[in-house]
Every structure is written in C-alpha cells, then in structure tokens.
Amino acid sequence: MQEIFGENVQTRHDFISLISKERFARYLAASDGDEARAVSLYCWNMRVAQSLYVYLQCWEVALRNRFNGFMSWKYNSSWPYDDARFVRNLTSDDKRRLSETKSRQERDRKGSPVSTPAIVADLSAGFWVSLLSKRYDIPYVWRHNIRRVFPHDQTLDRQAAWAKCDRILTLRNRVAQHEPIYGLPLQALYQDLEQLVGAMCPATKEFAQASCNFRQVWGLWHPPAPVISGEVP
Fold it and tell me: Of 161, 167, 214, 222, which residue is least crowded by CB atoms under 10 Å?
C-alpha cells in the first residue's frame, strides 16, 4: 500500500500520538519497527475490518432470527419469559445476559410491555453462539434440531456450527472494538461466514456476496502471516 503520510514524519508522529503509542505498538512490532509500514498495516486492518462488516452483520442478524424461530417453535413466542421451560435450561451466564437485556428493555420503555423481537435484537451475539455449545445438546436435542437454525447445509452439525460461530464471534468483537484482526486467519473466517450465512439463508448470502468487498481489500496488501491458533499477538 502507498505510504499515507509520505515524508511528513511529524504528521505521522502526531497520528501515532493520538491513537496512543500503546495501541500502535502492536502494529509496530508486526512491522519490524518500521513506522511507515506500521501505519499502512493500521490502515489495512481498518479497511479489511470495514470490508467484513456486511457479512458479520448478515451472520449476526440471521443467527438471532433463526434462533428466535427455533425458540418460538420449541417453546412459544414469549420464550424469553418462559421461566418454567426456556429459562431453566440456561447456564448462569446466559441467564444473566437474558435478565440484563430484559431489565434494560423494560427500563427504556418505562414499564411498557417488551416484545420478544425487541429482546432478540438486544441480546448479544455471544448469547446466541453460546446456545450452540455442547451444554445445550440435551435440552435442545441439537442432533435432530440443528436444521431449524441451519436448514440449507446438511453437512453442518452442532459441533462444527458452534466452532465456526465461536471463531466468527472473536472476529466480530475485535471489529466492533476496533482491535487488530490482521493476525487472524481472515480468509478461512471469510469462508466460514459464507458457509454459515448460506446455511441459514441463501438469499442473505447472495446479498452479502454482492455487498462485501473483502476479496478486493485482501488483495491490496500482504499483511503479517495469520496466527494459526487464531489469537492475535
């Protein structure tokens, strides 16, 4: 990529100072101490994160809406308030997430009734991904019911769906928090996004494919090699 600040070293230093030397240090280390290259890496990281936003949004919205359909089928359309069946199956962390979401929605509406769609839209992506974990195998009978969430991919079982969604959740959170993603296996994660969104809704995958420019941005530069473990250094 073209050097952003050219030979204007002072402007580059002003930029680094504003975003903080601590934040910039990770990019500098990945660029062998070359400030100009580190700025280019910072820019590329931002652009590739932006390019993935469309697919990440489609994945998250599709996942929560598919789960809402499953929960409404298995329990009823008021499943967030079904303490006797739905809530009792949740782990303590997921009960807390649901309780905090309901309280926040009820507070914002100043006592007015809160609809299930409002709660669905407010629950974190981590809540939905958690419901695919092994701990919910028995209550949700995932061996038979996984198709209600991923109806268009017969090869995708609960374990594979959870593993892929959990990796994408890490990517999603790093993008949302403006953290480095250059060390993640982005090409593999993009393929996971394609598979999962297509498994939930081929039409949504078609929309994402038409709107996402990840492959073009990826080809602009060669970032540091992905960390195989999926952890950013």
Answer: 222
